[in-house]
Amino acid sequence: xxxxxxxxxxxxxxxxxxxxxxxxxxxxxxxxxxxxxxxxxxxxxxxxxxxxxxxxxxxxxxxxxxxxxxxxxxxxxxxxxxxxxxxxxxxxxxxxxxxxxxxxxxxxxxxxxxxxxxxxxxxxxxxxxxxxxxxxxxxxxxxxxxxxxxxxxxxxxxxxxxxxxxxxxxxxxxxxxxxxxxxxxxxxxxxxxxxxxxxxxxxxxxxxxxxxxxxxxxxxxxxxxxxxxxxxxxxxxxxxxxxxxxxxxxxxxxxxxxxxxxxxxxxxxxxxxxxxxxxxxxxxxxxxxxxxxxxxxxxxxxxxxxxxxxxxxxxxxxxxxxxxxxxxxxxxxxxxxxxxxxxxxxxxxxxxxxxxxxxxxxxxxxxxxxxxxxxxxxxxxxxxxxxxxxxxxxxxxxxxxxxxxxxxxxxxxxxxxxxxxxxxxxxxxxxxxxxxxxxxxxxxxxxxxxxxxxxxxxxxxxxxxxxxxxxxxxxxxxxxxxxxxxxxxxxxxxxxxxxxxxxxxxxxxxxxxxxxxxxxxxxxxxxxxxxxxxxxxxxxxxxxxxxxxxxxxxxxxxxxxxxxxxxxxxxxxxxxxxxxxxxxxxxxxxxxxxxxxxxxxxxxxxxxxxxxxxxxxxxxxxxxxxxxxxxxxxxx
Length: 636
Hints:
The protein is of the alpha/beta class.
């Protein structure tokens, strides 16, 4: 539960229709199993204490009384168990009978939530036996106690404000405006659906779509628990198609017809953060009754996968193609629009033989093709200097030849040496001035060539470099349109690899794969025996780790200690804990100290949910202090 991770589960017991004693024992067995797995929220199916398919037996007092007695016995036998339980049963109130979810915690029945939407069509006859939920909150007597009764009930943890649970039942989810909309507007972060949806051809896909869509629409965790085997098969078959979703992502799904317990963790702090960022509030708290419970804070073991490359996750080939083509489309159309708007005659790009300039060139070529213009209108310029190796220079030239763009070599060594002499800087002192003189000379060459040819300079720098400030101010930091500005390094690699696999040109594929395997370097220090002397990841750390931090910090606003915990899960067996912590400290130090470079970035297209544009996604003062974040890391 620490860091907001709440272990939740959905369990489908094998019921015997109308046998409440047997069904109670099956439910208790699952509660024991869930307790062993440290589950804190456990959901059972609709009417699971009686079975959903009792038919006119629901009109028998004996069955209703047996269900209520079974619920009271479950409450008695779960005293002291810190687990929020949601169990389906029929509940009578006055002369009406309701299809309900009973919510229990540590042996106490906290509330009863009735079903609002009763299907009465095709194979469903719920309206024959049950009454729709009343509009007004009231109480119902169970045993010796009066229990809150109504749809507008929230169940909140006093120790974890972000843990707030609500319930809807079955076809409530199918309604045009499901009750969960109001629940989440009032503050619920987790919605449980106790369901008995029969299995039909294609219905599973639709049901899955509903769960994903509703969790995304309401920015919530959604636990869907369905009736399974044991129900009468007179006219319907039930599959126990349980699902757990979180903000549009399906975290866990049961195999149909197995009647199994599925569990995972929902990150309620992440949901809280998303809502806070999006200003999502329905101001409906006054219309709901909040019933609080106390829960001891513990560290929840994680069973859900933590993706080490969130910007470039492992995907099926179909999803990979879809993702890459979508990203290229955004980059290409951004550049296409800019070039058309300013009537640019050329696109000038510095090509180094490295990853970033490679991707920028690929995007520029696609933009020219989309504009139906000659690729020769792209002027790719290589500017070798002290650190340039034959490998990168050769790759740059071959790439440009295969793409059919104009290619020019401008030797800048003499210009840089002259500049160093002008400012009285020794040529054998390899400091920031020595390195940046080269970067700024390259930018000057590109800018002047763009002026000369009536074009614009295409920026190559990526989001990871901008986050770390690993760019020369007014050097490679500057351009007239930065196509890679919101593409992190791991995604650059992903896109270039995709292009290599799909380009259909063996020579092109070979050079792209070699660019991918070349050590990342600005090549600003003299080469050693024609080998790259300056390896970026040796100096600032692995981009894998930095991109992970960027995503978790900027996408969800997570604190450093939570990111560290997630990183240990994601990179287990790849980086040890000390290495992760070391580079996280570097990340936060550089991220805060280098904001001034991001405050004056050129235009560039936003591609994903994370961006650093000072005009939109990230507005941070250049003199913000990193003390709070650094202290968290020091205390780990």
